[in-house]
Amino acid sequence: MDIKVNNQTVIVFDLDDTLYNELDYLKSAYKSIAIHIEPKLWKRLYSEMFSLYRSKVNVFKFISNTYKIDISLLIDMYRNHQPEIQLFDGVKNVFEAIKSNNGKIGIITDGRTKTQRAKLESLNIIKYLDKIIISEEIGSEKPSLANFEAIEKALPALEYFYIADNLKKDFIAPNSLGWKSVGLIDNGMNIHCEAHNYLDNAHQPQQFICAYNELKII
């Protein structure tokens, strides 16, 4: 897929499961919690936690009952740890190509400010970003138009793209605003896996890609 980029182009990305796998954030948080609770035997506990998660057992309830730790503390540890996560292959190349062609890059993501900004810092991409929209900061979540209109206000341009993964909520607003929408297909590890329920025109992106090496910035 070719995208022609110039100083009137803004390409906006979702964060979770679009730039990296959100499952890796969960694993990173579980590891951090396990090390805190069982410094010497953390690998055993981490293995148990992840197995329970895969079995759809409430991991925090298990930890709380086993170690007599309040669930609210575990949630705080989960949300506030410094994540160990990695960009998908090709993302950095796409970002650098956009910037070299004088395009602008934005982020629209739902979540808490501290958590989402910690992810962006760990991914080492803040230096590329011209605008970051986080739902907690503006008081609305996707599919609200407000999140996308905030990008338009901050970064006036002739052409906007939104690249994201979640058909349930990601593409309704940009499609209605006349943006170009691109869906990154689930690599088998996405947290949200209900795409088959949202294949109507309102929810679908205009184009799909399987990986970032399919994007050519020209």
Model description:
It is a single chain. With 218 residues, the protein is of the alpha/beta class. It has two domains: 2-20 and 86-217, HAD superfamily/HAD-like (Rossmann fold, 3-Layer(aba) Sandwich), CATH 3.40.50; 23-80. Helix content is 40%, strand content 15%. It has nine helices and eight strands. The protein has helices at 22-37, 42-54, 59-67, 71-80, 91-100, 113-123, 135-138, 145-154, 172-176; strands spanning 2-3, 9-13, 104-109, 131-134, 159-164, 180-184, 207-209, 216-217. A six-stranded parallel beta sheet has the order 4-3-2-5-6-7. A two-stranded parallel ribbon has the order 1-8. It is elongated, with a radius of gyration of 19 Å. The relative contact order is 0.19. The mean pLDDT is 96.
Q: Report strand order across the widest sheet.
A: 4-3-2-5-6-7
The average pLDDT value, as a whole number, equals 96
Alpha carbon gap, first and last residue: 10 Å
Highest-level CATH class of the largest domain: Alpha Beta
Major β-sheet annotation: 6 strands, parallel
Computed structural class: alpha/beta
Low-confidence stretches: none
Counting structural domains, the number is: 2
Q: What's the CATH superfamily of the largest domain, by name?
A: HAD superfamily/HAD-like
What's the CATH topology name of the largest domain?
Rossmann fold
What is the helix tally?
Answer: 9
